[in-house]
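Quarterly update from the structural biology core.
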Amino acid sequence: MPALAVRDRASQNAAAAGQRGRLVRLPRRRGQRPKASPDALAAILDALEIELIGTAQTRRDHQTAAGETLRNLLALYGSDHVTFLLRTVRESSGNERALTDPILRAISAVMLAFPAWPDTGLRWIETFDGLPLVEMYTKARPLKYAAPASAWAFLAGMIAERLYPVFEAPTVAKLSIEERRNAKLERKAAERARRMESRATTNSARIEIGQQLIEMKRTAGYRQFTRLAMRRFDELRCSHQPAEYMNVAVRYADRPAILQGLSWQVIALLSSPTLPEDLRSEFERRIEAGERVTPSEIAARRAAHPEAPKGSR
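Predicted structure, tokenized:
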């Protein structure tokens, strides 16, 4: 049949369908959602010590595979929204493995629906202490098979129901703009002190483990050392960690002042044997002067250094 006849037949069928009152549906063209750059998201995750992993990898504490969703939220609502969203889960107790796509979507929805609640700052985060987000999502998930909605939407409703009596009680007074600004500054100072204290405790414990590993390596054979170390210390999950802990212990065990407030990732990079000495000295001077040093900066400077090993470039 000629192509012209086929087009005429299709036009006639469409006209007949319209006469019978039927709706002729055209296929939808789904537009791409806006997404922020990976570097913008990486900077936020780096500051909060959250590791971005692939969707096929096994997720552990403080790891997330929700990179696409976070980039979308970052483009739509900005860095303040995404940062506080991640901090809500990262800094609340009992939610170490709650950085999943549906849970982050649900909390983001509650933050957008009730903006006055996250404006309370530290109080908002404290309400999530002990809130079993993973367990709540497990209970909400079967509902998506019974109603045309995503499971994260049901979880958002469950979270809102839990938080509503806390924030919408008659005793909650409305704060003025100046009072909210002062409260925000106080909250940031308290959170900074809390983060530095937590890092100092973690770093001291890991340096102590590193010192024990050094002693263990002296007594155990080379082939037996890694296996014995992984068996004795539950915190060691990768074969490269014993060497990392020992490097830090050798270089910084007698210099606790420089470790105040630093993330373990920064300390591990500073103590790495692949970092040239002049770079290490420069970073140490900057840290002692109160400047902020990030893992990505150390890695980039090390890769660009002419004396850096080929494997680190």
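The chain has two domains: 38-174, 195-312.
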